[in-house]
Request: fold
Amino acid sequence: MGVRLMVVDDHRLLAEALASALKLRGHRVLAAAAPAAGAADLVISRAPEVCLLGTAAPAEPGTFDPVVRIKRERPQVAVVVLGPVPSPRGIAAAFAAGASGYVRHDERIEGVERAIMKARAGEAAVAPSLLQGAFEELLNPAAQPDDEGQRLLRILTPREVEVLVRVADGEDTRVIAAGMGIAPSTARTHVQRVLMKLGVGSRLEAAALAARTGLLDRVGEG
Reply:
């Protein structure tokens, strides 16, 4: 039986893509996008069974204020946070606010659906690998704080970064090849390597991930 849910995220393209994928799997999606400031009002007014709430900065103060309000006014709504690889503080803040789970935004749709079902059943919906990573970071803190955008930028070569920027701009393989002065087959190979390194399955997901983590802004700053 499908879940009555909402996808609330200020990245409309990502929210609508996720909503469409969940509809195809038999779920009833009530809304697909909204700015963070209006998230709580939207969820409270529609009262879904589960809300997927997107965030780009889980460790920032006030990020989970909408979760607190939703749980206060609609305690029956299970909130699953959708965000980047979180810091231990990010995971702790999400659950402290009342979230039922945390899912990485580059998770496969099967993983998102599992989290939704667990949250509706009243279970904690968080991947063991995320918890393990959080505990490891708490026990062995890095010398300097890091963020997901910077980490992703480090694993891509300069040429792959250029390809990602062009993908995010909506260029197809032929346009990428012409702009970079390479063969279409080479451009296609670069695109596939970028998708593989980012752990995503499509250009749309790659563009959304780059935008959400601030990776494109960092390229511009460089």
